[in-house]
Fold these 3 entries.
Entry 1:
Amino acid sequence: MKVDHEHFMRRCLELATMARYQGNTPVGSVVVFDGAIIGEGIEALPTGSSITGHAETLACQAALDATGRKDLAGAVLYTTAEPCFMCGYAIRQLRVGLVVHGMDTPVIGAVTSIHPILADPALDGWRPAPTVIGGVLLEECQRLKAR
């Protein structure tokens, strides 16, 4: 079965648009398990009160809350922007198997920066690195960020 990554990324773009209209950084994320969205998150910074208010961590927490699971093994995380260091740690800790993102964030990105915590195979003894696919709906993600 071929997965339509663009379908789930379009939902992330809708969530990112909501974040922007709330005065936050335009990032949206969803967690998918067995082809269904089980958690969604919209960036809650800078207007939110929690330092962990990133779309990715919020989507993962929503997925855990909805399923009662302790990890997200077998799940896919979609997000409009490459996860940061903090989110990369959480994603790896939760054993997410696949991360699909729109645009790179090379300064603080957990894949493309000089500190690739999400993808570094040297950390596989701790938690295996997920597969990462970047550039899905890249232009749409970049346009949203630029507005």
Entry 2:
Amino acid sequence: MASLNKVMLIGNVGKDAELRYLANGTPQAKFSLAVNRNFKGADGEWKEETEWFNIVVWAALAERISQNVTKGKQIYVEGRLSTRSWDDDQGVKHYMTEVIANDLKILERREAGQGGGGGGGGGGGDEWGDGAPRAGGRPQQRTGGYNAPRGGGGAASGGGDVDVDDLPFE
């Protein structure tokens, strides 16, 4: 039987990414992400509900994003859910569910003069990935390391807003 654990979120960073190194030297970055949902209530009025997610990023990807993922930025996060548990000093069991991210993309425009990679100039944001295979066994198009924004051809080029339809949902 097949199984799938995949999460895709678009939201606003709630606090700057905090980078730390574990005892074995492995980098880890953590930050919170607020995702809003708009809906019509029973009274017919539009309401907004915010769901908060704890995002964890590991290894080289954690180091790459730690300086760029800052409070207020809108980002796309792709990863998997992971729940961990621990007992506190009083013996009470606690649970925390986190999103272990393997791809991130800042969805906001670059400021003038920041340039852009890939020959398109301008650009719709920075994108990072772990280079792991995606659905269907295909490798991610932009493998490992820092991935400069794609130039030309998409809504993200030329400094415009990113269209949700242009996100890398495979």
Entry 3:
Amino acid sequence: MLELNRIELKDLTPEPSLLREIPISFAKANLVLPLRISDGELIGLVSDENSILSLSDIARKKGLKPSWLMVAKEELLELIGRFYAELGSAEEVMETISGEDLSSVATEFERPKDLLELTEEAPIIRLLNAILQEAVKERASDIHIEPYEKELEIRYRIDGILTKVLAPPKLIQEALVTRVKVMANLDIAEKRLPQDGRIRLLIGGRDIDVRVSIIPTVYGERVVLRLLDRQQGIKGLEEIGLEDDHSRMIQDLLARTNGIILVTGPTGSGKTTTLYAFLNRIYSVTKNIITIEDPVEYQLKGIGQIQVNPRIGLTFASGLRSILRQDPDVIMVGEIRDLETAEIAIQASLTGHLVLSTLHTNDAPSAITRLLDMGIEPYLLASSLSGVIAQRLVRTICPYCKLDYEPLPAEKDYFDNPPERLFRGRGCPECNGSGYFGRTGLFEVFVIDNEVRGLISMKKDSETIKQYAVSKGMKTLRMDGLRKVLKGVTTLEEVLRVTQIS
């Protein structure tokens, strides 16, 4: 048995050849992870007496002596998942496929009756599995499979930025898309219409929910896979990037028993995550909370969630009407898309319900003019709207290669009190050389007071309303971003990229 101080878990690098000899199912079932062969010994990780026997058995078959390190079961399972996930990259799978008859593989996939006969060793299946595994390892939020005239591209969206990772031969395009359809239970014969579906996966011990979108293009079907890690759970207010003053303002809004609270921003700015954080904060066994979403991304314990389904007439508006007959205290509407949904949400807030929803606008004050443009009466909007939170997502500086530097004069001009030092990432293997690792939110919290209600009733434009809000202390998205730059959370370049002049 190895001494505990002879191996640091963070420094472990198992031999890939050993992992390939032992299936991950065997490693998990027997709680054993072979690491390497040294001086006639097979060194591995175990967690109990049974796993010691398993390691001894593997060593005996190789003519070696077993040597082991005891670790906790949970830690060992995590290591098994991580190392097996890193075992085969998509590029390695492509190299193995290159020697096979791709034409015959693609032809097999065109015949539905043969799809069920394909085993997990089929090259296309191994390629898609490798693409998914690598995406999870690289923290990608989306996988894009994009067909062009003479090539096929695979891109990952990591921390909000798309990056090309692979260019498989055009020949396997249909086979790859068909495999996605099979996994998502979609119609493999339908190639002319868009299709949406879901895939539930277990990758390296992590429960991953994959939302599938397929659309036809002139060069074939284009696939986008959105990855949701269920194990990450719902974030709290303190985890989404709120500064202390913004957090207090939002908690005051959530403490109200009626009114509308809107979260605004473009697609992919984290609005749904913020709404879930709000629900997480106000959840109580004494409250009846019901949501209607498109789609339901995370299941929330103790909260009734409805999935929109326009094909059977279940829209935001019709679902919202039904929710009002369920005696709710809090209602969350995934998005206000039309006048009908907006009117029902306002009526619900005026009759004693707290309503949370999202809207697509560039900043918080613009939400008012957007709703007025939809056709909402100004006096109704003034009476019902409690607050608007605009947000964006910015990449955070990689903690593994963070360094400080002296800002240029042009950079100092963005600050009222120019800083002597700012921060950025140098670029390292942990962040793939980008200097960024993960994302956080920028927020603009606009609380509706009596003065604003008067401006709404007079149908004032969004710029007038914004000027008033800033004069009363509202921090714009850029102001909030500059605070985070000074704290070393993100870079000035990143804040300027995602915010407008404000």
